Amino acid sequence: MIKRDNEGGYIRPGTTAPKATNDALYTTNQTAVTGIASMFTFDASNVQTQMADVQTQISAVIAPIITGVVDYDSHIGEALDLLRKAGIDDLVAEFQRQHEASK
User: Tens digits of per-residue pLDDT, 52-85?
Assistant: First the structure.
């Protein structure tokens, strides 16, 4: 239920979060370490065809598994085979190559 404040405006439901939650979400952790992949951006230009084919297979065979439209156990093997045929191994290898080069 959306509530109105005294001035007729709307109150966001998140305003009732405990202080500890807000502190955890909105306070910078000064001891945090920057991860090695935080500045890495994958360039898929060398594997554009494979990227498109893999994305097509994800929509066609992985999404129905994830959403429970089809049974996981009886469909995952075929789905993984289709991803391999689409070039997922090439994508992973290119990603790894670029990531290693960026270190």
Answer: 999 999 999 999 999 999 999 999 999 999 999 9
